[in-house]
């Protein structure tokens, strides 16, 4: 079993789209204006919902939540320095944490206050694909 979807919340989807597309370079899969953004990752989806709009009834059960979640996106170990520099060049404060020989994580916040992490899968003992 593996995670198929990761869900975060953002009150300002325009700022979220600019961040996830412009800063992280993710490709938008689909969106409903004012309600959600869906990004396809390698083998899973990142869903970003407006917390107010996502509680309204619809075709699928409502998604209730608030900004302040956490998601970790996998990057190749050898790209850690490059990503740290890229994030800092966008004015982000980055905390770098070493997991011993397993690799290092980069922690930072998106515009909604969600804590994001970029790290190699090896921090969990999973070999990079």
TrEMBL record:
Q: Which domain of life is it from?
A: Bacteria
What Pfam families has UniProt attached to this entry?
Answer: Glyoxalase
Where's the VOC domain? Answer: 2-121
Gene3D superfamilies in the record: 2,3-Dihydroxybiphenyl 1,2-Dioxygenase, domain 1
Q: What is this protein called?
A: VOC family protein
**Which organism is this protein's natural source?**
Deinococcus antarcticus
């Amino acid at each position: 079993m593996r995670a198929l979807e990761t869900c975060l919340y953002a009150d300002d989807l325009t700022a979220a789209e600019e961040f996830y597309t412009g800063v992280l370079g993710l490709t938008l899969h689909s969106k409903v204006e004012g309600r959600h953004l869906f990004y396809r990752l390698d083998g899973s989806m990142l869903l970003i919902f407006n917390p107010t709009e996502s509680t309204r009834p619809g075709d699928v059960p409502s998604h209730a939540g608030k900004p302040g979640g956490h998601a970790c996106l996998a990057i190749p170990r050898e790209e850690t320095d490059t990503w740290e520099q890229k994030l800092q060049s966008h004015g982000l404060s980055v905390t770098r944490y070493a997991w011993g020989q397993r690799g290092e994580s980069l922690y930072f916040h998106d515009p909604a206050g969600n804590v994001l992490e970029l790290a190699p899968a090896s921090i969990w003992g999973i070999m990079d694909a």
